[in-house]
Amino acid sequence: MNKSISPYFFALAGVALLAVGVYFIKTTDDPHGLLRALPYIFVGIGSGSFGHGMEGILLRYAKNHAPAAAKQLEIERNDERNTALANRAKAKAYDMISFVFGALILAFSIMGIDFTVLVLLVCAYLFMLVYNSYYRYKYHKEM
Amino acid sequence: MNNRLEEIRKKRGIKQEELAAALEVSRQTVGSLENGRYNPSILLAFKIARFFDLRIEEIFIYEEDERV
Which stretches make up the HTH cro/C1-type domain (chain B) (predicted)? Predict the structure, then answer.
């Protein structure tokens, strides 16, 4: 994400989106179409944005008030073992997601779920595989 | 890969925390390196060697029949 954008902006925008989402959830009696999902999307994006903003604010605060702690935090973040652990965990999670997605598609097809949903799931699954292949090829060129 | 990191560090009277701070890695990384649970990148290996003013081979011992 763009680092030049102030974390205060993210935090405030998050709170605003959250408030709008909650307002619509509380006030709309009989929502139709997009309005059924939109407030919840606002709440989701608002929460994420608020969390991201608060992280930035706390990091700034730590840098100004506790430089030693901030330095330690930076070391922990850039530590090569931590990075290797995170990447390994991500790889395991990817393997599991591929398996779960496959099982889910199979289960949905047996259950006779709506064809559109099934096609969307298959597309998402294929997108994931293509994305994997693309980065494999890209890194193959780079390394 | 084996290493003599713990032995060399203790001989020089350096704490794990101090070594970690000098190498800009976490203390857990130093611990894992010393236990042989984690093999460093070539960059970190050079940093360690430079810190102790030794050659990499004097700290890290490569074993031929090892599975990477």
Answer: 5-59
Contacts of B48 in chain A (CB under 8 A): none
User: pLDDT means per 10 residues in chain A (143 residues)?
Assistant: 74 94 86 81 94 90 83 89 96 94 91 90 93 95 93
ipTM confidence: 0.86
What is the count of structural domains for chain B?
1
Q: Which two structure tokens, joined as six digits, stand for A59?
A: 């990091």
CATH number assigned to the domain comprising residue B51: 1.10.260.40
B7-48: pLDDT as tens digits: 999 999 999 999 999 999 999 999 999 999 999 999 999 999
Q: Which two tokens stand for residue B25?
A: 């890695």
Q: Identify from B5, B19, B26, B44 which residue to disrupt to test chain A contact, counting A C-beta atoms within 10 A and taking the largest count.
A: B26
- Confirm whether B27 is domain-assigned: yes
Inter-axis angle of helices B27-35 and B16-23, to 10 degrees? Answer: 110
Structure tokens at A90: 């991500």
